[in-house]
Amino acid sequence: MAELPANSAGVEVERPPPTRVRVMLPLPLPEALDYLPPDGATPPKPGSFARVGLGSRRLIGVVWEEGGGELPPERLKPVIDILPTPPLRPEMRRFVERVAAYTLTPPGMVLRMAMSVEEALLPRPPRRVCAMTAAGLAVLDDAAADPKLTAARRRVLQALRDEGACSAAELARRAGCGAGVVRGLIAAGHISEEFVSGEPAPEPIPDWRSDGPALSADQAAAAQRLVERVREGGFSVTVLDGVTGSGKTETYFAAIAAALAAGRQVLVLLPEIALGAQWLDRFRRRFGAAPAEWHSDVSHSARRDTWRAVAEGRARIVVGARSALFLPFAELGLIIVDEEHDASYKQEDGVCYQARDMAVLRASIAEIPIVLVSATPSLETVVNVSRNRYQRVHLPRRHAEASLPKIDLVDMRRERIEAARFLSPPLVAALGETLAAGEQALLFLNRRGYAPLTLCRACGHRFQCPNCTAWLVEHRFTARLICHHCGYAAAVPALCPECMTAGTLVPCGPGVERLQEEVAARFPQARVALMVSDLLLGPRAAAELAEGMVAHRYDVLIGTQIVAKGHHFPMLTLVGVVDADLGLVGGDLRATERTYQLLQQVAGRAGRAERPGRVLIQTYMPEQAVMRALAAGDRDRFLAAEAEARRAAGLPPFGRLAALIVSAADAEAADFSARALARAAPQLPGIAVLGPAPAPLAILRGRHRRRFLVKADRGTNLQAALRDWLGRVRVTGSVRVQADIDPYSFL
Ligand code: ADP
Ligand code: ZN
Questions:
Q1: Separation of 560 CA from ligand 2 center, angstroms?
Q2: Which residues line ligand 1 at a C-beta cut-off of 6 Å?
Q3: 42-71 b/e with 16+ CB inside 10 Å = b?
Q4: Cα-based torsion angle of the residue sequence 431, 436, 442, 448 in order, rounded to the nearest 10 degrees
Q5: Buried b / exposed e across 203-230, counting CB within 10 Å, b at 16+?
Q6: 141 C-alpha to center of ligand 1: Å?
Q7: How far is the CA of 590 from the centre of ligand 1 (A)?
Q8: Which residue range forms the structural domain that includes residue 467?
Q9: Residue 587 belongs to some domain of the structure
């Protein structure tokens, strides 16, 4: 940076206003572009949102810094105007730059995540809201006044009365009904529509003064340490490690209260917010107001409001999925990453980033504390604790003396199982006992649909996705064959398309729908519910299912991994893991760790209240270290063995990995570019390049894929080597090269 000019008395003279500014645009450009200040105006401050022209387009970008490059001023355009939006804070701009550098992404593409709702940058247009009329209030008080008042209509009116005016779409969402119900009420005169302008009413402020439940001694000590970190301020990473049901959520609520009390904003990241209904309820009960939500199910207009409320500091707490990390907080004071081990924190397309790791980066730049929460912390986190980079706070016991469930393995090699059945005799017997005792059971199978493969008994034809190297999965409820990678769907045909015989298609292997059929056949009285992460099941349906379980409207819950997280069902005493080996196939370096975490989480659903729980794990590999560790409840031994294996192989967190995925519309182009990359591969000490090889998913969404895997020692500057490598190879046409630092998926 140039030194400030000083006059002879040593007093700094004022610098002349900068003659140009650099503006970062949300585009895949290598750097910010130069512009002149807007005509006749003072130069905009760094961080300001600015409208500029680029070619024939008008775009919104961010004034990144003053000064600029070599281009003569007559070739530069002036900034068109500056938007009345709170500027992007310096720490956020540094964060964008650091994420871009770490993930090898153009900074504009990271900035794009930080300004994801363009309307939020513009002044708010007047909007139409629903308001209660006197007639509406009257029928709420006296249902007899309107015989046509259906349950759905009543819910809408109640939501409007209790939570205030809002758009028709938002009202329908709150009441959990279709937009038609709201329109009907408008037509009936129970609701009126009005235009209002300006920002919506301030977000309700969570009341941090209200006391939570009395904490146990362990919990109080843990909470105390978290609260101290918040009060001290500054960067720190604390790992809140405690068995499921030990009260981790209650404990970090204390830290949230401390941050709110200090007038700071709080960000809570959760893996899949759709599962957060119980979490939201708890938050509301504790703090008396709902947090702002940020995830894929939030409507566009609600996102707009939330982005703005976060930037202006009106929203004090946000709970969201990984993308919430890129919200422009005005005064962020604490980040919580719940279920920090969860693989869904890794984004696999677009900008490939690990939200937990980037959250630590963000906390360090903002100089604030961050808390990583898990019952089964990731190996990366465990190793960071052992290196004293993270502090650990431990909750060793379940709350209120609830005991941890007893875990038994069922050796499937020894069990006799009928054809086309998937439950072993011990699991069937346990199910029978549980139901007879009036308790609930959970069957876990991490496979959506009816059967993972469909084939023709006559000719052996297998149904494959036309766009991907993957089998189509039969979904019997919807009578479709679906690709779980690209979403391709086709009706189940009457004839085999290969040999044209009728009635020869047979399902192979179990999916949750098929399991439901088996449970219904064996226990016709049992009330069975299915919980899957299919798109069909929105957050509200998931919440209703969870409520149904708590209210004991179901006896058996069958589900994929979405049941593993966070739920608390007091009457659930049996967990059956139908195929524990599923996650172990495939060459993923985290396969065993992930299996351990997932099964431990599922097991943690059993016996969370007074009644003790038990867990049966069906496996064909009972000698596997993971299975033995689960049965023995010996997490530390498992982690030590896993760490040793990774250390020996130089894998993360003891070494570094990156993947390069070359993809193209045709196989020749992909191979050509992959070979060109191979020729230019770095030859540096401490770095090994493996590949190119066809990716296991060699064709995905119609694109042919080749992979490189780069292994490096921990001390090497992997990004610099990759940047240099990619800079030396030009790819053309339809070819794309995607870098994935710290990859989680190897498909
Ligand atoms: P974790 O997040 O570790 O799984 P939770 O915070 O969800 O644990 O607590 C498990 C259950 O125990 C919840 O229903 C919670 O309300 C209850 N609980 C935990 N700590 C307390 C406490 N100190 N007083 C009352 N209930 C508690
Ligand atoms: Zn597909």
A1: 20
A2: 213-216, 219, 242, 244-250, 399, 568
A3: ebbebbbbbbbeeeeeebbbbbbebebeee
A4: 70
A5: bbebebeeebeebbebbeebbebbbebb
A6: 37
A7: 29
A8: 449-509
A9: yes
Let me know whether 521 and 623 are in one domain: yes
The whole-model pTM stands at 0.83
Q: Which of 224, 240, 243, 249 to mutate to test the pocket of ligand 1 (most atoms within 8 A of CB)?
A: 249
From CA 204, how far away is CA 676, in angstroms rounded?
57
Query: φ and ψ at 656, to 5 degrees?
Result: -115, 150
Report the alpha-carbon distance of residue 567 to residue 546 in Å, rounded. Answer: 8
Residues 185 and 221 in one domain: no
Q: What is the CATH number of the domain that holds 222?
A: 3.40.50.300
Residue 312 neighbours by CB under 8 Å, 6+ apart:
86, 199, 330
The answer to the question of residue 727 being in a domain is yes
Structural domain ending residue among the three candidates 643, 667, 702? 643
Looking at ligand 1, which atom is closest to the CA of residue 214? Answer: 23
Give the number of the atom of ligand 1 that is nearest the alpha carbon of residue 338.
2
pLDDT in tens, 615-652: 999 999 999 888 999 899 888 888 988 899 889 888 89
* Cα distance between residue 272 and residue 275, in whole Å: 6
Pocket probe mutation, ligand 1, options 341, 399, 569, max atoms within 8 Å of Cβ = 399
Task: Tell me how far the alpha carbon of residue 570 lies from the centroid of ligand 1, in angstroms.
Answer: 12
Residues that place a CB less than 5 A from ion ligand 2: 465, 467-468, 483, 485-486, 488
Crossing angle between the packed helical segments 179-187 and 168-175, to the nearest 10 degrees:
120
How many domains does the chain divide into?
A: 6
Distance 367 CA to ligand 1 centre (A): 30
Ligand 1 atom, smallest distance to 243 CA: 3
119 located within any domain: no
Judge if 297 and 242 occupy the same domain. yes
Atom of ligand 1 nearest to the CA of 395: 3
Same structural domain, 557 and 592 = yes
Residue ending a domain, choose from 643, 668, 698: 643
Residue 306 CA to ligand 1 center (angstroms) comes to 29
pLDDT digits 0-9 by tens, 44-63: 899 999 999 999 999 999 99
> Ligand 1 centroid to 272 CA: how many Å?
20
Note whether 376 and 287 are same-domain residues.
yes
Rounded to whole angstroms, how far apart are CA atoms 242 and 392? 10
- From atom 15 of ligand 1, which residue's Cα is the shortest distance away? 247
> Same domain for 693 and 560?
no
What pLDDT digit, counting tens, does each position of 282-340 carry? 898 999 888 999 988 788 888 998 999 999 999 999 999 999 999 999 999 999 999 99
pLDDT by residue (tens digit) across 407-440? 999 999 999 988 889 999 999 999 999 999 999 9
Ligand 1 atom at shortest distance from the alpha carbon of 246? 3
118 within domain boundaries: no
The reply to whether 533 and 470 lie within a common domain is no
Q: How far is the CA of 270 from the centre of ligand 1 (A)?
A: 17
Q: Which ligand lies nearest the alpha carbon of 222?
A: 1
The verdict on 430 and 558 lying in the same domain is yes
